[in-house]
Design a protein that fits this description.
This protein is an alpha/beta fold and 416 residues long. 43% of the residues lie in helices and 19% in strands. It has 15 helices and 15 strands. The longest helix is centred in the C-terminal third of the chain and has 25 residues. The chain is globular. Bound molecules: zinc ion. The site of zinc ion has 6 residues, from loops.
């Protein structure tokens, strides 16, 4: 590699380091940016001047103010990502419902709407087209001709990042539903199809890299059971984006019927529908395909808390399946943390005793004692946040760190 190519590579790397620091830490003065990145003052000056010229970042005056005295000090000039530098779109698909949002370069949601689009009864071939048309008019309405630079589609189930299709999801009756091609064709931008639990892991990373940046398994509990896996500080997606399908690991050979069509999956004991099925004595080979009403889960939880034995047993069965699954995860990966997330954690106190017993039975103490098991509240929309963050990180890596000629090129250039 020649000297010129070498310095070009360093320049790109430094642009990326600066942009990632601003994405992760918010606005920073040049001195703060130097401290955060380890780059020299001369490099920071040169890179920031170029990024300002490229209209990717901008200077903002912020009051220095002391929290201690409450006095407002002299304004300090900080560098900020320019919100208008780019926009991305996020689509979340659930059973017969789709929500769409737009976010700017600072990650702020600028538009959001829910649509009723049939998924479960829809034909495999038409869903992608319908989604593409709805998304195109949503973007047009809010962004006009400016459009978006990337689209992320988050869905429960097996997302195939290579083909941009959803190979299996409880949201669809059909298998191998192509999603990305119709949208890419219509909008001429790259489309990423991802598993929603992986995006919760991305969301946690973007919220608190210090805490979750090591080896963390995020277990999603709710309408399904999923996992997002952070290994060595990055979300692990596997060969085709289907890694860590925790909910569809086998809990009991030939056991209860799962929505994926197999028997004995962990999810078939620990997802909302499974807990309901056990509690109401519905045969375990009876699948449940419609969405569970959250009110029904709250009612069941209250019954259990009031001492209803049948309801309590259903949560215990869920806790046992979950605990053995976590034990296997601990034995396999030796993680720092297991984080429980999702609406299912509202009944955590009913699940936890059996879960901890199963972990104790399932893996030797010497490994499990180093693992912290916590839960996070599910008030924030972490799936959306994680998807937005993954899209923006990709844009910084592939577009904005490349230099002025690439950064100012049209979005079409980056379409697959
Ligand atoms: Zn399954």
């Amino acid at each position: 590699m020649g000297e010129k190519a070498d310095s070009e590579l360093v320049r790109r790397q430094n642009r990326r380091i600066v942009l990632d620091a601003l994405r992760q830490r918010g606005n920073l003065a040049r001195v703060e940016l130097g401290r955060a990145t380890g780059l020299s003052p001369a490099s920071i000056t040169a890179i920031s001047a170029q990024l300002i010229e490229d209209k990717i970042i901008e200077e903002v005056d912020e009051p220095m103010g002391s929290a201690l005295t409450g006095k407002r000090g002299r304004p300090i000039v900080r560098l900020s990502l320019r919100a208008e530098a780019t926009h991305v779109a996020v689509v979340k698909i659930s059973i017969d419902a789709v929500s769409m949002m737009l976010a700017d370069f600072q990650g702020r949601v600028t538009a959001e709407r829910a649509f009723r689009i049939p998924t479960y009864g829809s034909e495999q071939a038409t869903f992608g087209e319908t989604l593409a048309a709805t998304l195109a008019s949503f973007i047009e309405e809010h962004r006009g001709k400016s459009g978006v630079a990337r689209v992320g589609i988050a869905v429960q189930g097996l997302a195939d990042s290579r083909s941009g299709s959803i190979n299996w999801s409880p949201v669809f009756r059909a298998r191998h539903v192509p999603i990305a091609p119709a949208i890419e064709k219509r909008l001429q931008v790259p489309v990423m199809v991802v598993n929603d639990a992986n995006m919760i892991a991305e969301g946690l990373l973007s919220m608190d890299r210090e805490s979750y940046g090591g080896n963390t398994a995020v277990v999603f509990l709710g309408y399904g059971v999923g996992m997002g896996l952070i290994l060595n500080g990055a979300v692990y997606h596997g060969a085709t984006g289907a890694a860590s399908e925790f909910g569809h690991m086998n809990h009991l050979p030939d056991g209860a019927l799962c929505r994926c069509g197999r028997k004995g999956c962990l999810e078939a004991y620990a997802a909302d529908y499974a807990i309901l099925r056990t509690a109401y004595g519905t045969p375990q080979d009876e699948p449940r395909m419609s969405a569970v009403d959250p009110a029904q889960m709250i009612e069941l939880m209250n019954k259990a808390k009031a001492g209803d034995t049948v309801a309590l047993n259903a949560y215990e069965a869920a806790g046992t399946a979950l605990g053995f699954g976590i034990a296997r995860t601990i034995a396999l990966l030796n993680p720092d943390r297991i984080i429980l997330a999702g609406p299912g954690t509202r009944a955590l106190e009913l699940i936890e005793p059996a879960m901890h017993r199963a972990i104790k039975d399932g893996v030797v103490d010497e490994i499990s004692r180093h693992v912290t098991i916590e839960h996070v509240s599910f008030d924030k929309d972490m799936i959306a946040r994680g998807t937005i963050d993954a899209l923006l990180r990709g844009l910084v890596r592939d577009v904005f760190s490349q230099g002025p000629s690439r950064a100012s090129a049209t979005h079409m250039e980056f379409a697959k």
